[in-house]
């Protein structure tokens, strides 16, 4: 199973970015999600979305970030608006399979300048 993420970059505070991640291989998806890890900090959940399109967000991104998925393409997206310097991190896409198998993408760096 491979997860390929893209869309990171450098943006000014208040700006926006969209991350994309596509999964390939053999799996049965239960939940797709995004996590992030800032320098010197632990990896944390950003948002997840189930096969029934039920989304969950970290409090720090509610109202600013939107997670979505396209089942036919095994893809998950993260629209990030009103970005803040504290959103700077490496963002990882995550796939949780129906048999509790978990897969990670390689990470994409998001840098928000003040």
Summary of the model, kept short:
The chain is mainly β. The strands form 2 sheets. Strands 2, 4, 5, 6, 9, 10 and 11 form a 7-stranded mixed β-sheet that branches. A 4-stranded antiparallel β-sheet has the order 1-3-8-7, with no helix packed on it.
What distinguishing features does this structure have?
114 residues, mainly beta, seven-stranded mixed beta sheet, four-stranded antiparallel beta sheet, 0% helix, globular
Would you kindly provide a written description of the structure presented here, covering whatever features stand out?
By secondary structure, this protein is mostly beta strands. It has strands spanning 2-6, 9-12, 17-24, 29-37, 44-50, 55-57, 65-70, 75-80, 89-97, 102-104, 108-113. The strands form two sheets. Strands 2, 4, 5, 6, 9, 10 and 11 form a seven-stranded mixed beta sheet that branches. The radius of gyration is 13 Å and the shape is globular.
């Amino acid at each position: 199973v491979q997860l390929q993420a893209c869309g990171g970059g450098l943006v000014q505070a208040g700006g926006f970015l969209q991350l994309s991640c596509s999964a390939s291989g053999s799996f049965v998806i239960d939940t797709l999600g995004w996590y992030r890890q800032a320098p010197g900090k632990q990896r944390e959940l950003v948002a997840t979305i189930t096969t029934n399109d039920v989304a969950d967000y970290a409090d720090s991104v509610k109202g600013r970030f939107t997670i979505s998925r396209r089942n036919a393409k095994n893809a998950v997206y993260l629209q990030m608006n009103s970005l803040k310097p504290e959103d700077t991190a490496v963002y990882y896409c995550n796939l949780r399979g129906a048999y509790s198998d978990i897969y990670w993408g390689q990470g994409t760096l998001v840098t928000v300048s003040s």
